[in-house]
Design a protein that fits this description.
By secondary structure, this protein is of the alpha+beta class. It has nine helices and seven strands, in the order ααβββαββαβααβααα. α1 (2-27) packs antiparallel against α2 (31-65) and α2 (31-65) runs antiparallel to α5. The N and C termini lie far apart (188 Å).
Length: 372
């Protein structure tokens, strides 16, 4: 199998070399350009050798990763436990959600342990809670980079010092991408060295400009690949652990793999009653704390409401008084009747209503004479 692969690669490299030589002869007859074609052919041969090395690397690592035990389909079952000890490029990411009753101590221990293991804290966000509601619940979110060899030790220590409620882990195998990028980089370096030699031997200005332009492109590509390789190395050498810490009063009970016998009816009733009672007491306590802490604000609010009520009553009283006055003056019962002019009688004298009538002596004398 290996001989056939080698033969195929030799045929492929020979065909590319012939094509490059023909194109080089047809385009220009100058010696430097012919050397460039030879350099490209050498680079192609170097690429074939790099892929040959990759094939050997792949075949050598396969037996290390897979434990040799075949599954029912005839394939090899992967041995995940020994993956970190091989030469493969594995990027490991772990996410943890933990609870603690001693928030400050746990954060300090985690930070110190990360430094002692040779890692570093990439990102940290700590929330110390707020007294506005009267309930302080602190939490933190930290992104940690731990050397891959020490990651399991760190995870075990975190598990012993806190209560893990959720854990997610993923492993990304970047071996193929890493080897492909590394082999491509070797090909470009070989081509760069050949072009530098041709540039030193070149005498034509046009050829020199062309070679320098190509060398600049190769340097940029090589630096970009080196940057990607360094990024891969950093992710492989350091395990990324995202840690979410929450401070609680009571830790969440962990369900065991083999649960105990189901409790009886009376035990479940008493447990549920106590849990409900504790929840009600917690709510009432929070409400009482909230009211007590807001007493100054409530006093100011009560004063403002009292002032508003007094102003409203005063305005309402004034409006009612004004409305009564308007109703009294505009009613037809209380309207003034027009006065008619009385004729003037100069011969009669006004007499009071209750006064006695005035006696006329002349009238009485005349009446007496008539009787006689």
């Amino acid at each position: 199998m290996k001989k056939n692969n080698t033969l195929i690669r030799q045929i492929f490299a020979g065909g590319l070399t012939a094509a490059l030589l023909l194109s080089g002869c047809g385009s220009s007859g100058s010696a430097p350009m012919m050397e460039a074609s030879n350099g490209s052919a050498a680079a192609t041969a170097g690429e074939a050798a790099a892929y040959d090395e990759y094939a050997d690397y792949e075949m050598a690592d396969t037996s290390d990763i897979y434990g040799g035990e075949s599954d029912m389909n005839g394939g090899l079952a992967p041995d995940v436990s020994g993956a970190q000890n091989t030469n493969r490029k594995l990027i490991r990411n772990v996410s943890l959600e933990v609870e603690t009753q001693d928030f400050t101590t746990l954060i300090a221990n985690v930070t110190n342990r990360v430094k002692s293991l040779g890692g570093y804290v990439e990102n940290s966000n700590i929330y110390n809670g707020s007294n506005y509601s009267g309930v302080v619940q602190r939490n933190a979110s930290m992104t940690l980079r731990i050397p891959s060899a020490q990651a399991d030790t760190f995870l075990a220590e975190v598990s012993n010092q806190s209560n893990i409620t959720q854990q997610n882990e993923s492993v990304n195998d970047v071996t193929l991408a890493y080897v492909d990028l590394e082999s491509h980089k070797k090909v470009l370096i070989a081509e760069q060295e050949n072009l530098i030699e041709m540039l030193e031997a070149s005498t034509k200005l046009e050829d020199m400009i062309t070679l320098e332009s190509r060398i600049s492109e190769l340097r940029y590509q090589i630096e970009s690949m080196e940057s990607q390789l360094r990024t891969y190395d950093n992710k492989v050498d350091y395990t990324t652990i995202v840690l979410h810490v929450t401070e609680v009063k009571e830790l969440t009970p962990i369900v065991e793999e083999e649960p105990e016998e189901e409790p009886g009816a009376w035990e479940r009733i008493s447990t549920g009653f106590m849990d409900n009672l504790n929840a009600v007491l917690t709510v009432l306590g929070n409400i009482a704390i909230g009211i007590i802490t807001r007493i100054p604000s409530l006093i100011v609010l009560a004063i403002l409401v009292l002032i508003g009520v007094l102003i409203y009553r005063k305005v309402r009283k004034a409006r009612l008084k004004k409305a009564k006055t308007y109703t009294y003056t505009s009613s037809p019962l209380f309207a003034e009747q027009p006065k008619t002019a009385e004729p003037v009688n100069n011969n009669k004298t006004e007499q009071p209503v209750n006064a006695e009538p005035v006696k006329n002596e002349n009238a009485e004398n005349s009446d007496s004479k008539i009787k006689k």
